[in-house]
Amino acid sequence: MMLYQILILLSLLVFLGILLLNLVDLPDLPSARSGTQPFVSILVPARNEDEHIEACVSSLLAQEYDGFEVIVLDDHSTDSTWDTLQRLTAAGTGRRLRTGRSEPLPEGWHGKAWACHQLAAMARGELLLFTDADTVHRSEALARAVAGLQESGAEMLSLTPAQEMHSFWEKLIVPLVYHILMCYLPVRMVRGSRLPAFCYAIGQFILFRSEAYRKIGGHESVRTNLVEDVWLCKKIKRAGGRVAAYNGTDAVSCRMYRDFRGIRDGFSKNLFAGFGYRTPVLFTLMGLLVMFYILPYGFLFSSLVSGKTLLLSGFWLPAAQIAVALFSRMIIAVKFRHPVSFVLLHVVSQTFLLAIALNSFRQAKFGKGAVWKGRSYRFS
């Protein structure tokens, strides 16, 4: 038991070490550069985004950048997204804005990849920025991202937007995305290693050099991958390209979900798919989450009930494990502007993540597949 508790504590300390290194290795976007700037096509797939699309498009048209276009593709929305886009176009909100409607979804494609594929075919830019319709961009965001791409010499750049969270469930679960990224993935290896295993990509904001994007086959090459952002990163690395990662919380914001159902469906869509539908990998990682973040509370509670609070293996080591895990969450909350009060609910967050992972597995193996915005996908 003692050896087990020590190994768990050492593992959590390793994760803390990765996090601390990542705070150094994930720089803020640089300031905008002066001089000639490459033309950028900003590409926005939109499906049932009437709540967000006007704010997103308005922020994109307000970019302080000389040469860019904004192309928005309505992906068979059943709400008033298309009407809003037409109104924005008719109001003359920007000569840079173009809109279109998606062709029918072909067999073997998922919706976002198909929409992005069509957007790329419409684009004229030397650089291609794919961004989600629920994002809002500060006026200097594009110029700073281009400066980051040029500074790094990369073919692909992604960043961590600020996540807008208002409901209880958003604050409880959404920050785990950043916990996973910052504690398990050495950002230094994303930049410095050619290995596709070290990939970093958040689909809310991905900037490509057009030539590199087309060289890997664009979104057609990931048409069956629901976690297309990570697989695009892998494609870039396998083609010999470089990937840059930046902290973009002061440049771009996004509200991914609004309630528990949205979180459940969104995470369920991505979790099992993110591991390539490999059942042993998913369940191994679920077991590790239990060991790292849930069992320590069980050991601590058992010691308190039995009165054996002086035991090193039964009380103090689990207490240290909990303290390290909460300290890591606290650092992430402060860095990325997450609600600090929810750090103490980390064990609850991880418990719900496990339940969502099981739902992701159930959908893929025994259900109709992942469900997102009225579509079902089963590529497992």
What does this structure look like?
With 380 residues, this protein is α/β, with parallel strands linked by helices. It has 2 domains: 2-21 and 274-369, no CATH class; 26-257, Spore Coat Polysaccharide Biosynthesis Protein SpsA, Chain A (Alpha-Beta Complex), CATH 3.90.550.10. It has helices at residues 2-25, 53-61, 81-90, 111-122, 141-152, 168-173, 176-184, 187-192, 210-215, 228-238, 260-274, 279-306, 312-335, 346-366; strands at 40-46, 68-74, 97-101, 127-131, 135-137, 156-160, 162-163, 205-209, 243-247, 252-254, 370-372, 375-377. The strands form 3 sheets. Strands 3-2-1-4-8-6-9 form a 7-stranded mixed β-sheet, sandwiched between helices. Strands 5-10-7 form a 3-stranded mixed β-sheet. Strand 11 (370-372) and strand 12 form a beta hairpin. The protein is globular, with a radius of gyration of 22 Å. The model has no long low-confidence stretch (mean pLDDT 92).
Give a short synopsis of this structure.
By secondary structure, the chain is an alpha/beta fold. It is built from 14 helices and 12 strands.
Write the layout of secondary structure elements.
Layout: H1 2-25, E1 40-46, H2 53-61, E2 68-74, H3 81-90, E3 97-101, H4 111-122, E4 127-131, E5 135-137, H5 141-152, E6 156-160, E7 162-163, H6 168-173, H7 176-184, H8 187-192, E8 205-209, H9 210-215, H10 228-238, E9 243-247, E10 252-254, H11 260-274, H12 279-306, H13 312-335, H14 346-366, E11 370-372, E12 375-377
Parallel strand pairs: 1-2, 1-4, 2-3, 6-9, 7-10
Antiparallel strand pairs: 4-8, 5-10, 6-8, 11-12
Helix pairs in contact: 1-13, 11-14, 12-13, 12-14
